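A favour, since you know our structure tokens better than I do. Could you add the entry underneath, on a fresh line?
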Amino acid sequence: MPMKIKFVFLTLAFVLAEVPAYPQAPYAWLDVSDSISFQVEDIPVLPEYSRTPVREGTFAAWLRQLPVKTENNTVFLYDGRVKPNQNAHYRVLKIDVGSRNLQQCADAVMRLRAEYLFSIQRYDEIAFHFTSEDLAKYSDWIDGIRPRVKGNHVSWIETDRTGVSYESFRNYLQTVFIYAGSYSLSRELNPVARSSDIQIGDIFIQGGFPGHAVMVVDIIEHNQTLEKAILLVQSYMPAQEIHILRNPNNEKKSPWYPVREQGFLETPEWTFHWSNLKRF
């Protein structure tokens, strides 16, 4: 094979290897009949700003392409009631909340991360610590390993191997939501030293009982100054639909938060420090 052609083939192979595909449906919770007419990336940017580039197939691209509800703009609780505070959100993501009071703040963060990894079949990377510090791995769940919790003690028992299915995956997540939370998640994430290095998929988190966590799902950059602004999503207590937060310090109810190096990040229902930034 001529050297030049061989080089082209090798380059193409490298590029293809760098771009993950979606062997599963990228948003497996959607019904077959569901259409996606509006996504996070369709939210208008600020004047003189542009979206930061992301590589297709990455977690950043997956978050930026999350479907957004168009039929209404109301946040519902897990039991079907309307959330009392309807002033905190800008738009609502098109993703179910479940029928139990489980998918709260940190759970929503873990759900989004796990759903992405499930969609590209990186099952070995789906793992979260319980508050007891025991590690619950989805790969073990596939093999039929289940936790038995008594007080603060967790033991693991073998059951029939379930294999890979979306239903089983959601059962795994429900178990994680019961025994994990902001305290355990904050301990397993990696601190980000400078907020100017913020990336899509990063998390602002304060671990506690209660604590809170919000996730960055989009970033834009000023065309001249390169200053950044971010979109944040959250669930809250009680469990509720995941929604894009509005910026309470913006009179026009903009969802974009200018990135700062110090001080407080004030969201409608929680105040973080910019130093609370962490990453998977």
About this structure: Residues 227 and 251 are 20 Å apart (CA to CA). The chain has six helices and 15 strands. The radius of gyration is 20 Å.
